[in-house]
Amino acid sequence: MPSRFTSILGTLFRHTMLLCNIAAVGWLVLCYFSSITHPSEIKYIALFSLTTPFALLANFVFVFIWLFSSRKLHSILSLAVLVFCWEMIPAVFGIHYFSKNDWSKKENTFKLMAWNVHAMGTFNPPHEKEYAKGIIELIKEESPDILCLPEFAMNENPKKRVYPDLIMKEGGYTAYKFNMDNGFGPNIWIGTAIFSRYPIVNYTAHQLSPYIYLVETDIDIKGTIVRVGVVHLQSFGLSDEDKAVIEGVKQDQDRESLAKSKSFIWKFNDAYERRAQEAEKARAIINQSPYPLIVCGDFNDLPFSYTYTTVKGDMKDAFAEKGRGFGRTYNQIIPTLRIDHILYKENALQINAFKTVFSKFSDHSPLVANFEINGKPK
């Protein structure tokens, strides 16, 4: 009798595991379709892109579970969907633990940093000066040749614009451009700044939606024009209170937090739809570039979201080529939020090194990449 009871339990367990495995496969398939489906076409499908890292992990777990069981053929379920979604894996989780990063300075190399600097501490009173000092010190330490700073802040009064002059001096930059997105209070401009040690020969700010721009600069790097585009796309619009609620749900602190979290899911879907429109406009502009191209900045969206795949197009992702781990760039909420990206055209550019540097002086971490120009582009 006990042996029969044990057999029934074993059969029930295997069937339950198989159903869970089928659900995990369906979950990952929905994550994939969220990356190619406009958020306005299927309501809330974009939310699945937030869960892609966990869907991938679940299917990897099922592969190993079945391989170490008597039902090894069942591993084909998750294995097949992982092969189908293979391109997602290096974009979500960097696998380059054993490859070398070459940060050496050569004749045709240049170092680029992209960092949402959270208004240089303006949003963190009374620590504005401390945060700004920390940001500038890190920039000086990393010493990028091209510096792209979404959510940069400066005073509207030219006589009080301390940060641009200080960054120019400390970083050895010879040129910079700034495009205002919006204001903060009566005297502060918030926007995108680009600093360069090489000549900026052309500059254009393309408006994608109210307060959202794709800022393009053509930079002459020793005779080769490289176009650098910087974006800061529509955010989720979460307040500090909303973020606290999400933290409460994540830590399972109370049922009230879970109930509240449902009340602002509409914010996510609205933001996804706006970003999708911005991404499509950005892609149309990017397609017109006649030069080697880099697009970077704060996309406010994860790898293999509709926003990411639309902007990326046929470009390469610096993290996918050289990154390690989850590459978290947003320092709040959950550790899988890699919402800042560096993308590049492979026709004349080669990436030699990439890293994400943690900093407490912004809610985002800076991305740093070392590029090499391969010959003269056509």
List the helices and strands and how they pair.
Blueprint (H helix, E strand, L loop, with lengths): L1 H33 L17 H16 L7 H10 L3 H5 L1 E2 L13 E6 L13 H15 L3 E10 L6 H10 L3 E10 L3 E9 L3 E10 L2 E10 L2 E9 L7 H11 L4 H9 L1 H22 L6 E6 L7 H7 L3 E2 H5 L1 E2 L14 E5 L4 E8 L10 E7 L5
Helix pairs in contact: 1-2, 1-3, 2-3, 5-6, 7-8, 9-10
Notes on the structure:
With 378 residues, the protein is α+β, with helices and mostly antiparallel strands. It is built from 11 helices and 14 strands. The strands form 3 sheets. Strands 4-5-3-2-14-13 form a 6-stranded mixed sheet. A 6-stranded mixed sheet has the order 6-7-8-9-12-10. Strands 1-11 form a two-stranded antiparallel sheet. Helix 5 (128-142) packs parallel to helix 6 and helix 7 packs across helix 8 (255-263). It starts with a helix and ends in a 5-residue tail after the last strand.
How far apart are the first and last residues' alpha carbons, in Å? 78 Å
What structural category arises from helix and sheet content?
alpha+beta
Biggest sheet: strand arrangement = 4-5-3-2-14-13
Percent of residues in helices: 25-40%
Order of helices and strands: HHHHEEHEHEEEEEHHHEHEHEEEE
Number of helices: 11
List keywords for this structure.
378 residues, 11 helices, 25% strand, single chain, six-stranded mixed sheet, alpha+beta
